[in-house]
Amino acid sequence: MIKQITETVDYLKEKGFDNPEIGIILGTGLGQLIDEIEIIKQVSYNHIPNFPTATVEFHKGRLIYGILEGKKVIVMQGRFHLYEGYTLQDITYPVRIMEKLGIKTLLVSNAAGAINLDFKKGELMLIEDHINLQGSSPLAFKGVELLGERFTDMSAPYDETINNTFKSIAKKNKIKLHEGVYSSVVGPQLETKAEYRMLKIIGADAVGMSTVPEVIVANHLKLKVAAVSVLTDECDPDNLEPVNIADIIANAAKAEPDMIILFKELIKSI
């Protein structure tokens, strides 16, 4: 993997990806942040050596480098998931690349279902902790200790200072920002009524199919991390209705302006 990382980093440096400070992973329906960036360079994933390729139809597949609020940023427009057939090492490979290019902070967004029924679709949740239900770890491979400490501490995976800043920005801009625990499952099928009940019992406030692998690797690399979920559906096992993917994307789009304010104001403060 070290040889592959070197090849990828060298390619992107040649393309002009010059010392980004902040990495951003954009989730489902949250792509409009791109319009706020002064784009300097962009490369399709399928042109980048050793990079996976996004296969989800509503995920773009571009790595973007530019300026946002005066900071150099590198943005993943489209991410990778276990349910696409990738390994956890594939999914988190871009985080390792962004760190080698120079980022110190990783910001993540995703779409999630609300397990906590006090949370409503179209609202946002700041992730304060997570539960990994994906069945393995992106650090569980031979030679991981060559890339960082094998036994990575996860007592505080989400940066407290950044989270407090997010909360201050939300309060100032009258944005409803819940705090909660995000549970990451494999997917791509959605959960049964019994699974929603289980998730509530074990302490999850929201459930999705991403983010946790990237956060684990970011901690492995000693990056500061924060993540925000847009709640796209309400997971009430006693009144469960079939989920419409188009409705999920529409709810993500509805919350997008608030997400953009949070991210832009946070980046301005870093």
From TrEMBL:
InterPro entries: Nucleoside_phosphorylase_d, Nucleoside_phosphorylase_sf, Purine_phosphorylase. SUPFAM superfamilies: Purine and uridine phosphorylases. It is an enzyme of class 2 (transferase). Its EC number is 2.4.2.1. Residues 21-268 form the Nucleoside phosphorylase domain. Pfam families: PNP_UDP_1 (PF01048). PANTHER family: METHYLTHIOADENOSINE/PURINE NUCLEOSIDE PHOSPHORYLASE (PTHR11904), PURINE NUCLEOSIDE PHOSPHORYLASE-RELATED (PTHR11904:SF9). The purine nucleoside phosphorylases catalyze the phosphorolytic breakdown of the N-glycosidic bond in the beta-(deoxy)ribonucleoside molecules, with the formation of the corresponding free purine bases and pentose-1-phosphate. Belongs to the PNP/MTAP phosphorylase family. This is Purine nucleoside phosphorylase. It comes from Hyunsoonleella aestuarii.
